[in-house]
Recover the amino acids of this structure.
């Protein structure tokens, strides 16, 4: 099984965006200033976010967009969003958006959001610091209670159709579950879990498998459905922590961002941000 850090990226679909950081040229930044000092001197925090990743970012809105705004406010600066097209794996994303910059000419950002807090990923990318976990996510399955009252094992789906994004961790787990027993029941055309959840909402399928955050964003609060952990021994039962990344040398910036996340969690504001996305916040 691939590491959680790499697999998490399989759940995303992206559209590129470039040039968001182009306004930084020519600012009178002091030589030798720390990354935090440079952020404050130019008056903006550039935050890298994944494009088209509902409920965290879609159409300029979402949980990560609100979190980025709160982080900028905590530093007393403006927010500059840098949406970007994800590459083949998380190491590429960290290189392009955190410590080097993209070969198309944009980036790096001051901080990249939605980075798995994963020890193998940290060890493999010593150029960055991964910090400030702000939520947990996991692989889950939503079902119609009138069609599948209980789901202790996937066999209880019987011959019911299941919507799942094919190019995702949930898709990989469902395709391989019980030696491929459910392959012919899977509808894998969906680009992300929110689309799969809407297929369930339209009663085109009896269940949808995706990230818990994706399913909740569409179905949470609807008594016709229940969302539970995917009953697969290969699915990480408690999910994984999601945090952010900065350059390894950005010690003061990392500390300031960690303090900001701590304060957002303690004040209840972080839970409120998730609630506006119809997602139940889980502390990391």
């Amino acid at each position: 099984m691939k590491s959680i850090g790499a697999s998490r990226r399989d759940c995303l679909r992206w559209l590129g965006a470039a040039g968001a950081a182009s306004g930084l040229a020519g600012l009178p930044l002091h030589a030798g200033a720390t990354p935090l000092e440079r952020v404050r001197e130019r008056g903006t925090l550039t935050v890298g976010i994944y494009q088209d990743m509902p409920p965290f970012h879609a159409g300029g809105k979402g949980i990560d967009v609100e979190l980025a705004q709160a982080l900028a406010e905590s530093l007393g600066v403006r927010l500059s969003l840098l949406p970007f097209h994800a590459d083949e794996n998380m190491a590429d994303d960290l290189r392009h958006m955190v410590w080097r910059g993209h070969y198309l000419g944009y980036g790096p950002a001051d901080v990249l959001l939605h980075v798995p807090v994963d020890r193998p990923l940290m060890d493999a990318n010593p150029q960055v610091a991964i910090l400030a976990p702000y939520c947990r996510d996991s692989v889950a399955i939503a079902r119609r209670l009138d069609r599948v009252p209980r789901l202790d094992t996937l066999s209880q789906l019987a011959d019911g159709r299941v919507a799942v994004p094919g190019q995702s961790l949930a898709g990989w787990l469902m395709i391989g579950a019980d030696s491929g027993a459910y392959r012919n029941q899977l509808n894998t055309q969906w680009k992300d879990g929110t689309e799969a959840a809407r297929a369930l909402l339209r009663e085109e399928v009896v269940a949808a498998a995706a990230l818990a955050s994706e399913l909740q964003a569409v179905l949470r609060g609807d008594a016709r459905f229940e969302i539970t952990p995917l009953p697969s021994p290969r699915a990480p039962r408690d999910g994984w922590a999601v945090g952010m990344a900065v350059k390894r040398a950005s010690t003061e910036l990392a500390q300031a961002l960690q303090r900001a996340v701590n304060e957002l969690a303690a004040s209840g504001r972080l839970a409120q941000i998730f609630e506006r996305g119809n997602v139940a916040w889980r502390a990391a």
